[in-house]
Amino acid sequence: MTADGGGGPRIAPATTRSEAGWTAWVVSRASGWVTGTNPPNLFLTLARNPRLFRGWLRFASRLMPGGRLPRRETELVILRVAHLRGCAYELEHHRRLGRRAGITDADLARVAEGPAAEGWTERERALLTAADELVRERDLTDGTWGALTRHLDTPRVIELVLLVTHYDMLATTIGALRVEPDREISRRRPPRPRGRRRRR
């Protein structure tokens, strides 16, 4: 069973460089190394359409990791979207990335509780409230817009809206294609065998 659907992937991830294309093959391996998993199944699934994959990758990378919002805030927002959408793939992938950005277990528990949880800064609460409204209502209330614009300039407000709606879209894609979760892979090297000591 998959985490986002049932019965296995509807489109099998590419398994060779010729199937994936050079760009997806290199990027997926680098991403897997960073997260400590196999090359992401999402990348190798989308790579079945190389032209769209390359365009999507360029756009997505401008939001994460290349966005102007601080990385911790970006990961909090993505995790909230994944939680709201019940997207296990996004949750697991961005829990790993979030920890690298300083997100703690307490933060993860608050993400599940939502923007009303105690412990958020005013800015974080505004970002998470915006995520909730965009996913649930497909719009922002005037109050939430006012809170956002007290903390973010115009380029960053645009980035936030695109960030939320992009990961909402990805959750739909992951579910519809039945993309299976990535597997954690140990990066520890096996111990070197001890050679016999030479007798003097």
- Share of residues in helices: 55-70%
Query: How many structural domains?
Result: 2
CATH topology of the largest domain: AhpD-like
Strand content: under 5%
CATH fourth-tier homologous superfamily of the largest domain: AhpD-like
Structural class: mainly alpha
| Strand runs, count | 0
Gap between N and C termini: 61 Å
CATH architecture descriptor name of the largest domain: Up-down Bundle
Radius of gyration: 20 Å
Write down the overall mean pLDDT.
90
What is the 3D shape?
Answer: globular
Note down, in words, how this protein is organized.
With 200 residues, the chain is mainly α. The chain folds into two domains: 17-63; 68-177, AhpD-like (Up-down Bundle). It has helices at residues 17-20, 22-35, 41-46, 50-63, 71-85, 88-100, 105-113, 122-137, 142-151, 154-177. Helix 5 packs parallel to helix 8 (122-137), helix 5 (71-85) packs parallel to helix 10 and helix 8 (122-137) crosses helix 9 (142-151). The N and C termini lie far apart (61 Å).
